[in-house]
Amino acid sequence: MKRFLLLWFLIPFISFAQDDVQVDLSNPKATVYTHIYFLQNNSYEPKKSATTIYGKSEKEAIDIAIKIKRVLDGKGLQVDFNKIPIDSLYTSDTLGYATMHKYVLFPERMPSISVERIGDSWYYSKETVNNINTLYEEVFPWYIDKVIELVPGAGHKRVFSLEIWQYIAFLLLLVISVIVFAISKRLAFFILRRILYRYTKNRGSDVNTSLKKLAHPISLLVALWMIDLVFPSLQFGLTINKWILLTINIASTIFWIYVFLKLAQVLISLYREYAEKTEGKLDDQLIPILRNFSTVIIVIVGVFKLLVLFGVNPTTILAGASIGGLAIAFASQDTVKNLIGTVMIFVDKPFHIGDWIEAGGVVGTVEEVGFRSTRVRAADTSIYQIPNSKLSEIVINNSGLRLYRRYNTQLGLRYDTPPELIEAFVNGVREIIKAHPDTKSDNYTVEFNGFGDSALLILMNMYLKNLAWSAEQKSRHQIHIAIVKLAKELGVDFAFPSTTVMIEQFPEKKSMTMSYDSDEKRVNDAIEKVVNEFKEGLPEPEE
Fold first, then answer.
1. pLDDT tens-digit map of 18-47
2. Residues 512 and 415 placed together within one structural domain of the fold
3. Which residues pair with 396 in a beta bridge?
4. For the chain, which end, N or C, has fewer CB atoms within 10 Å of the first or last residue's CB respectively?
5. What dihedral do alpha carbons 425, 428, 434, 438 form, nearest 10°?
6. Residue 95 domain-assigned (yes or no)
7. Short-list 518, 537, 526, CA closest to 489
8. Residue of 420, 402, 418 lying closest to 467 (CA atoms)
9. Residues 167, 128 share a domain
């Protein structure tokens, strides 16, 4: 009895509360609320809802208002009235509407539905009214109503607020999606492989593996696209559509992230094969940097898209990212400088991996160029980590970029060496230099150029083609060994710093003057023998 009296007491207030909602077109929020409120089941008055449509007859306006509501429900777009402005003079700050009194309800997912100010009131925009039939046909194709009419009476029975035909249609949609996924996966791999081969002539196993991984998410996207296209026409209602389509959009975004990650992997694989064919190794070092950089950019953009799907304002994200970026930049100025230095190193290419450089007192071989620093290994195998910001500013002496490696030295013969053997020795050294495959045979100098304190000086100046430091040392070794063998065959000795005291008349002492054999034939045979042995001992030149 008490509950009955309480209900009887509240009925007038409930009626009053329902009657209290009136048509209001004074601002964007009031207009959208008027449209949505008067199309609800417990407050269904389509004539009042149709007042939000400008310039149409009552019948046309009602039809348009209902279609706008059904399109929003079909796409799972639930209006958040707290986000809609209440300013009657609201001016959109969206690009393209900067000078218009216009508000777009869902700028990301449904930009063509908006309200605008006409006179002193707000109505659905002319763009929305003109495009609503097209939008409605996209969400609810013409054949849907005909298919629903063919459903027998038993199919319209409700189970948990949904009709039986909706369950069956949803299961059928899933089965078709699986079939579409299987077909599109094979088709995507075939098309990607044909495109790749057409433009790169590449059929490597690594690239094919990457293409298969790329085809998988693409086929999933095709299947999700079909579900997203057909599902709204099943008329599950706003609540179910909202969560199902939100899930589909989240999954699509994740798959797109995966697609771009795999696409970047394919492109980097192609670049790796190109880099392996080039002589320099700096572009090889660029591969891991590009991989990490592309991964970070793709993930950041993907997370940005996911946040937008969850209702975060893009302007807020960009503003936060800008402020956060400035804070990070101030807190890590050295890191930013090093990153810029890294970019400049890869742009200018002052050295390559494996080059022997001198930079700011550091001398060694470049082993790795990273995001922050470059690693240089010195001759004693110690490691130097040079910040890229410093390396991009200091003077770098790159021995690896020389056209040739110059080798200049002096060979000292004893003072008592006969002129004939000096000439033969010089000619033999020339032949050795010409015989070596890594020397520049048209540009060398071997001459008797002076008298030292302890030796007759033979200048040997030549240029080596191989720029690698280890290869230079190997070539020097081979030439040095050949010169020592030549001296042995000719019977000449190398001098060393010494002082010789000559006493011409000393009892029972022989002269210290060496005995030399200067026979021309023997000398020529000795040179020929040494040079031939030198040639035979050299490795075969690489093709």
1. 456 788 999 999 999 999 999 988 888 989
2. yes
3. 359
4. C
5. -70
6. yes
7. 526
8. 402
9. no
